[in-house]
Amino acid sequence: MSTARFPPSPTRPILNEGPFRALLLENIHPSAEEMLKAEGFQVERLSSALKPAELAERLKGVHLLGIRSKTTVPPESLVHAEDLLAIGAFCIGTNQVDLTAANTHGIPVFNAPFSNTRSVAEMVVAEVIVLTRQLFDRSREVHTGQWRKVATGSHEVRGKTLGIIGYGHIGSQLGVLAESLGMRVLYFDVMTKLPLGNSRAVATLDELLAQSDFVTLHVPALTSTHMMMGAEQLAKMKKGACLINASRGTVVDIAALAASLRSKHLGGAAVDVYPEEPEGNSDGFVTELQGIPNVVLTPHIGGSTEEAQASIGKEVATSLSKFFRTGATTGAVNFPMVEAPLIPGTHRILNVHRNIPGVLRDINRIVSDLNANIHAQVLSTDSNIGYLVMDLDQDVSRPVCDAIAGLTTDIKTRIVS
Ligand SMILES: NC(=O)C1=CN([C@@H]2O[C@H](COP(=O)(O)OP(=O)(O)OC[C@H]3O[C@@H](n4cnc5c(N)ncnc54)[C@H](O)[C@@H]3O)[C@@H](O)[C@H]2O)C=CC1
Ligand SMILES: O=C(O)CCC(=O)C(=O)O
């Protein structure tokens, strides 16, 4: 997260005059395109991510941006994105977007907090079994004509301990599935969480590492989770235990993991996410983990099921459409929350401004100078910005917006109706 750097002010008002354009990257599900087209958007859909400089160029004249996990949105991509109203992260993680920069440009970021939860949890269950039976290695051998019928080192998962780091949506859903296989479930979280089923919280990460046969990570990418599994933590895992990471690539020290696997301290690993990931499917990929026995490597597909993608497409497109039509910011991860129903016969203006004293007074004076009446007004703020939704009885939105855009505190102003 960067510290707040506001765009130069006054900015021009963004008015509700089309055509409106949406740019969807990274093969976002067609369900999103359909919904946004129905909303009147011209939609451009690309299969891969864009690098920041190209993104900055492509954002000119774009009103909605849709991304998944591979498109990073740094402050410089937003500097000239004057028309950009909102960003949809068609995934759970939003660490790829500089959320503070988006906030200070008046751009809410929406995500899909639950739509791929189940898909990730199911993949991890599969990996627990695949690792403990060394199924990928046996399969590869048979594919290459070798018949190695062995039981040594192969185990049932029943009765084994699964240690979950990060008992949020995915971690807790996974715990329920693992218990149905007869596993004992422990978890470590920095927050106090309701244990589901017979799962049990442990007080420290070390305790979890010492007791678990499988350790699986389900934490967000934060400064506090950066490299939280390094050589020291891996050494604290039981000999022969397996590590699973389907959270973010920055959470595990890959070199230390490779060393631990090669030294046979760890018995296996499944890795879905990497510190650097290719932008598209045609790019090559190299990791130190390649070629190590009993290591399952997947290309960040934890949430990549048809069910999850269709559901994410609809969920995020719904948030974007609702924001576009009414200004509702419910579910935005970087913005003050306002949701107010449209009132027939009134005229709605949305305004994002610097959060300093006197802004509401200045805006109300503008309205009053135009002899207009405020029907309803909802203001919500965070430490950087204020977000105002204002319904007027008279149709004076254009002169009001023009006058607000002249205030030095203005960041973004839009007429909704
Ligand atoms: N591989 C894939 O395709 C996917 C990966 N993900 C990743 O999984 C992550 C987790 O997703 P959810 O479960 O939905 O998130 P969530 O926000 O529901 O849960 C995260 C949990 O981690 C805990 N936490 C934070 N810092 C911690 C720390 N230092 N130690 C222990 N616990 C800590 C939080 O308190 C929270 O309970 C996402 O942030 C995303 O990065 C999500 C979906 C798909
Ligand atoms: O499928 C994707 O693009 C990203 C999945 C993911 O990592 C997330 O939802 O946070």
From TrEMBL:
InterPro entries given in the database record: ACT-like_dom_sf (IPR045865), ACT_dom (IPR002912), AHAS_small-like_ACT (IPR054480), D-iso_2-hydroxyacid_DH_PdxB (IPR050418), D-isomer_2_OHA_DH_cat_dom (IPR006139), D-isomer_DH_CS (IPR029753), D-isomer_DH_CS1 (IPR029752), D-isomer_DH_NAD-bd (IPR006140)
Keyword field: NAD, Oxidoreductase
ACT domain sequence ranges: 348-417
EC number: 1.1.1.399, 1.1.1.95
Top-level EC class as recorded in UniProt: oxidoreductase
Taxonomic superkingdom: Bacteria
PROSITE patterns: ACT, D_2_HYDROXYACID_DH_1, D_2_HYDROXYACID_DH_2, D_2_HYDROXYACID_DH_3
The keyword Oxidoreductase is assigned to this record: yes
GO terms for biological process, alphabetical: L-serine biosynthetic process
Its job: Catalyzes the reversible oxidation of 3-phospho-D-glycerate to 3-phosphonooxypyruvate, the first step of the phosphorylated L-serine biosynthesis pathway. Also catalyzes the reversible oxidation of 2-hydroxyglutarate to 2-oxoglutarate.
Family membership: Belongs to the D-isomer specific 2-hydroxyacid dehydrogenase family.
Protein name per the record: D-3-phosphoglycerate dehydrogenase
Organism: Myxococcus stipitatus (strain DSM 14675 / JCM 12634 / Mx s8)
